[in-house]
Amino acid sequence: MTQPTPIGVLALQGAFREHRQRLESLGAPVREVRLPGDLVGLGGLVIPGGESTTIARLMTDFGLWAPVRDFHAAGGAIWGTCAGAILLAREVGGAPPQFGGHQDSLALMDLTVRRNAFGRQVDSFHTPLDVRGLTAPFPAVFIRAPVIERVGEGVEILARHAGQIVLARQGRLLASSFHPELTPDARLHALFLELAYTAVPA
Predict the structure, then answer these.
(1) Which of 35, 94, 135, 161 has its CA 20 to 30 A from that of 63?
(2) Which residues are catalytic?
(3) What's the mean pLDDT in 115-121?
(4) Which domain holds residue 113?
(5) Is 193 inside a domain boundary?
(6) Residues at the annotated binding site for L-glutamine?
């Protein structure tokens, strides 16, 4: 029996272990990605929640910006959750003043994302979320979550909370404002595996 293509989880900072556990519970082999060479042979890559400015700095330190863009250009699927969604977006608002109001990103997905739009850590919350394609609500966990303020042409909105976009897809790219890895519900991870294993080069 052929082993499935590995799925990568960017393991620089944040909730990468929880993503690994969800993916492995679905039978997917998982590789933690810290260096450009770790991307070779992957079918998909998850960029986890955490602190987006810290992850961005570490991506610079380890020379990952261009290799991740090249990975996607070659057909790799990418899912950004919370901080990861910020790093996927073409435009980012709400960057801290100490960073000059600028947030580095991969600029792969035609979105405008605003950092911490749902409030600070103390404003974290859980809510059932209606997701296009799922038959029952998904138990979404929001922690210092960004919001997707704008989507470009070709971006499919998959879920909203209180009228605001919190889950979207563009081709082989998926962005979620919330933390699906912090719930035992693995349906969104299954959706990403389907996207990764059916992806074809652009």
Answers:
(1) 94
(2) 82, 179, 181
(3) 58
(4) 7-198
(5) yes
(6) 50-52, 115, 143-144
The domain total for the chain is 1
Residue 196, exposed/middle/buried by CB under 10 A (0-12, 13-18, 19+)? buried
Sign for the pseudo-dihedral over CA of 179, 81, 178, 170: negative
Q: What angle do CA 33, 42, 193 make, to 5 degrees?
A: 105
| pLDDT for residue 97 | 46
Give me the CATH number covering residue 140: 3.40.50.880
The structure tokens 């580095």 sit at: 104
pLDDT given at position 121: 47
With a cut of 50, say whether residue 185 has pLDDT above it: yes
Kindly report the average pLDDT of the chain as a whole number: 89
Query: Which positions make up the binding site?
Result: 50-52, 115, 143-144
Res. 164: pLDDT tops 80? yes
2 within some domain: no
| The length of the chain, given as a count of residues | 202
Share of the chain above pLDDT 90, in %: 74
Alpha-carbon radius of gyration of the chain:
15
177 and 82 in contact (C-beta within 8 Å)? yes
Other C-beta atoms closer than 10 Å to the C-beta of 104 total 18
Of 55-69, 92-106, 150-164, which range is least confident?
Answer: 92-106
- Supply angle C-alpha 187, 192, 181, rounded to 5: 55
